[in-house]
Amino acid sequence: MPDLYLQAEIAILEPDPIKKCEFTRQLSKAWERGELTTHTRSEILPIDDPGRPRRPTLVDPRRLQRRGFSSEVGRVRLLHAFAHIEFNAINIALDAVYRFRQMPRSFASDWLQVATEEAKHFQLLATELKQRGSYYGEFEAHRGLWDMVCKTRNNLLHRMALVPRVMEARGLDVTPAMITRFAQFDDDSAVSILQTIYRDEVGHVRIGNYWYRRICSEQGLDPEATFRQLIDCHMDGKLRGPFNWAARIEAGFAAGELEALERLG
Known about the structure:
Layout: H1 4-13, H2 17-32, H3 72-99, H4 105-131, H5 144-151, H6 156-184, H7 188-218, H8 223-234, H9 245-250, H10 255-262
């Protein structure tokens, strides 16, 4: 019987985006059908760099060209930036399955679901870019998301706190305004894709919140105080706002916690 973790490793290291998406879907289906074992003794690799195509070229975020809505090329650049986020998100969800093997089966099920939905998002965006005469990799991008994955690879609590509850939750704050701006230019296809991503990402952040709070409970930690400590340690004590309260509460944040976090800004 194939091994879940070896299959996840193959998916993470696959450089071709289309193959990665398909492999991820097949992996999730095989897991749901009970066709994979978890009785492995295979080494857990650090994976400083997941599999990715030769392009986009990765640069410091401060070197990225400005992206705007006023021109078609500006909107293509914005969609490319979303595609890059979703491509990274596939690897991030798979890495949670691959790396944290001490967790129950439901943890793997949750993050395989996330990985499959991120693959769907990436393919929607990649298809849209192609229809606009572009492709994933045409523009420069950065590796900020994966850098945080590397920083948290030895601590599941830190991973659940800082990736879904900080980096992915930020998408809940900014995506509605992006949807509004695309709608102002009658860009219906972009609006439809971003609405799909937004709906699914609420669920992804909710999954991260669930596991973060569960781990805190198991370790006897106060989740809100612990989160603030991690923000102090890893984010210089600040979170970017403003927050989308409705979406964050739907995704598992508490109102009192959001009030405290806004004071950190």
